[in-house]
Amino acid sequence: MRRFWPHRFRLLDWTGRLIHDRHEAAMTYTEAERVDWRALWASGDLARFCFISLGILLHATNETMVATVMPAMVGDLSGVELVGWSLAVYEIGAITAGAAAGRMVSYVPLRTNMMAAALLYAAGALICAMAPSMPVFLAGRVVEGLGGGALVSLAFVSVERLFRRNIWPQLFGVMSAIWGVAAFSGPLIGALLSQYFSWRWAFGLFVFGGLAMAIACYAVLRSPEATTRKATGTGLPPFPFAALACLAASVLLIALAGVDIEMLRSSLFLASGLAGLALFFLLDARKPRSRLFPTRPFDPRSAVGSGMIMVFAFSVATCSFALYGPLILTTLHDIPLLTTGYIIAAESISWSILSILVANAPPRSERTIIIIGALMIAAGIAGFAHAVPLGSVPLILFCAVLQGGGFGIAWPFVTRVIVATADPTESTVASSGVPTMQRIGYAVGAAMTGIIANAVGFSEGLSAETSAGVASWIFLAFLPLGLIGCLAAVKLTRHSRALPA
Questions:
Q1: 232 pLDDT more than 60
Q2: pLDDT at residue 22 above 70?
């Protein structure tokens, strides 16, 4: 699935702050002391770290794989009206676990944490692989999200705890490579296993991967730093249980609005879910020590507010192809799953390549780059509305590259402006708030896409006729959000003029 994966590029640094982009993770350390790769391997640090990073590979590959197994899975389990939930519930689990994992090492040793997360992930994959119905599959996705989100967070915690500071640049470089491999291999693995074996084997593969991760953690993490609790000199900040519970309930209410479309019932669920989201941000603002976002995160009069609006709008608006693209293309045009896998992989790869190409752009160009990136994303959304019903693979591929590339060139600079213009006391919160907002946007976008898809046809079942009705509307309905994202980008660039070059 796409682009739910860009969040896959959002990583934690050793302090627990989320790094904005996987390429930023590498660039942050380009001036640090370099270590010879042969010496790093000979010391055993690189081999040990590769075992630890297996958790990142499991999480990222699974996340990118799901879109290409969806057509076969829906054909077996039915429940096409619940497709949007597969992302929404996964993101809820990942957000919650990612927020908790960094603090859990103060209560439980790192090795125990990582083993538990790996086993939880394996259990979720097993539930998905054995699921007799869509609701059971979704329960497995929640468990997978909890395990995968924790594994990613703990992998970055392990860098700070287990490895020398002077080799952190190389280790973060390995992580960047892992995300790139996952972005390309995930959709292809899902397509190949679904086409030649069964979609269940795609999840079964991750059962073995989770178990292997748990065994590797037990065998490799034997140092005192990994087997003892992390001492803290100050009390832990409170965990935002109430805010995250409110967020989870809100997304589920929005998703429920689209399961069985009835005007009164659906309107009540949707209104309740949106009100719950507003309550989540209010609860978050009332807890300064555990807050997930800076002050007034949606105030368009500030750079932080404009940037967060842009992040949220585009994250919500770009879930459609990742969720329903392979399903519609396979049902409506008989396009092979392997082809859809290549398209999804191309979107992720274009994100990565263009992000690298613009990384060294001069500061005077960043405003132009942000606006161009926003326009590319909006153009990709509009293009999908024409290309997917038409079934033109080259045109669909172009739209995917356009959308992924737009994110790739804009996101590093958007994040820089948000963090640079935030109150100095909230810079860390602003930094971590960008990927968190993106995850929330994906969860809400998945739920909203499900509502639209069911309202215009999929509530009647999966067929060529219903797919034809859904194909345009799941993209056209989000064009207003694409416009909002572009306007927010313009506002953001106006605020960025005050920044020093």
A1: no
A2: no
286 part of a folded domain = yes
Residue 501 in domain? no
The Cα–Cα gap between 81 and 88 comes to 13
Instruction: Please choose, from the candidates 298, 359, 262, 325, the residue with its C-alpha nearest in 3D space to the C-alpha of residue 27.
Output: 359
Question: Which distant-in-sequence residues (6+ apart) come within 8 Å of 258 by Cβ?
Answer: 81, 84, 266, 447, 448, 450, 451, 452, 453, 454, 455
Instruction: Give the pairing type, strands 18-19 and 11-12.
Output: antiparallel
Q: What is the pTM of this model?
A: 0.71
Rounded Cα distance between 94 and 133, Å, is 23
- Residue 19: strand, helix, or coil: strand
Separation between Cα atoms, residue 162 and residue 113, nearest integer Å: 14
Total of domains in the chain:
1
Alpha-carbon span 103 to 326, nearest angstrom: 38
Residue 113 near residue 195 (C-beta atoms within 8 A): no
Tell me which of 414 and 33 has the higher pLDDT: 414
CB of 191 within 8 A of CB of 340? yes
- Residue 160 inside a domain? The answer is yes
Structure tokens that stand for 497 in this block: 């003029």
As a residue count, the chain comes to: 501
* Full residue range of the structural domain in which residue 162 is found: 5-496
HSE-CB at 380 with a 13 A cutoff on CA atoms is: 31
pLDDT tens digits, residue range 140-184? 888 888 888 888 777 766 766 677 665 655 566 566 667 666 766
In a domain, 249, yes or no: yes
Q: Dump pLDDT digits (tens) for 40-61.
A: 666 666 667 777 778 778 887 8
Q: What are residue 273's DSSP bridge partners?
A: none
CATH number of the domain that 272 lies in?
1.20.1250.20
Q: Which of 344, 348, 380, 390 is nearest to 479 (CA)?
A: 380
Cα(489)–Cα(370) distance, integer angstroms: 7
Residue 307 CA to residue 422 CA, distance in Å, equals 11
